[in-house]
Design goal:
Rossmann fold, 14% strand, globular, 8-stranded mixed β-sheet, SDR_fam, Peroxisomal_Beta-Oxidation, 306 residues, alpha/beta
Amino acid sequence: MSSTGLVTGKVVVVTGAGGGIGRDIALAMAREGAKVVVNDIGASVSGEGQDAGPAQKVVDEILAMGGQAAANTDSVSDAAGGARIIQTAIDSFGRIDVVVNNAGILRDRFFHKMSMDEWDAVLKVHLYGAFYVSRAAAPHFKEQESGNYIHMTSTSGLVGNFGQANYSAAKLGVTALSKSIALDMQKFKVRSNCISPFAWSRMIGSIPTETPEEQARVERIKQMTPAKIAPMAVALASDASAHVNGQVFAVRNNEIFLMSQPRPIRSVHRSEGWTPQSVLDQAMPALKSSFFDLERSGDVFSWDPI
């Protein structure tokens, strides 16, 4: 198992690691010397069904390459499950050093058609799940005065997208959760950062491939594999990135972006204060040139990966 040992000896929990991005992060962590807890309930993309197989299969892959790993099939969507995931790390390897909050489901629907259950299920896994697992690790991190959180966010929340009010709200919530953790726990030498991953494997089947141009585009998009996300996660888990805290990165094929965070960009002042009419007559016209367009993620990231 050749590596540079960037995370040798660290115990890493990766949620939703039975496939996709989580699996590749778990494998990459193991290659770099980490002991990995592979968590996955084995559900479908929409969160339905349950199967212990995916988590154990990834554990077997890690063991086969000479690494150390343990499987966990608890759901992140309840506090007791989150606690058991962290406890698996303690029971198996005696400590916890890194939490990768990757578990997620999709229940896409236009906002005006979204059911309460569709809203609730996605928030529970993404936002509540990130909190539950992170919170369970916090006392260990505080006690040992070290620890590292890596959360998966999305440009659906950072920028916007159609039909994903639940997912977008959860993912933007995760970025705020990460910043709060970074602020609250920096005095204990604990870090928290986000990755917004582009990995289009689930979409490949729905993209048209009728013309040579379309076929070539799909081939380019296929390069955006989940494995492209793993190097950033391993780098953030390493002590060599001890200076990186409270940041949001995006990874898209061979590109890495530092994403902006909300800050004031323009202001107007009126010494006598504002009335509703003066807001309309003066403030809005003055600020209008700096308004943001109603863009989707695909409008901002409008070029194909190379």
